[in-house]
Amino acid sequence: MQADSVEVFWDKEKGKWVVRIQAGDEVIRRHSDVPKNADEPALRSAVQNIMRDEGYELDAARMSVRR
Fold it and tell me: CA 40, 41, 42, 44 torsion: positive or negative?
């Protein structure tokens, strides 16, 4: 399945990255244990794993990272 958008941002309260996947009206949020100072390739790798676990394919053009 293809996601409409994927957003990755730092959750200050939990101290973890949040991956927000939107596909139509469905929104899935998952936390990642990747360190806050992780580089872009490490974040993308973590997002790919989460999306694969959720049954989605990652389109890099639809992914945004907020630091």
Answer: positive
**Domain total in the chain:** 1
**Host domain of residue 23:** 5-66
* Total-model pTM: 0.91
Regions of the chain short of the pLDDT cut 70? none
CB count in 10 Å sphere of residue 6? 24
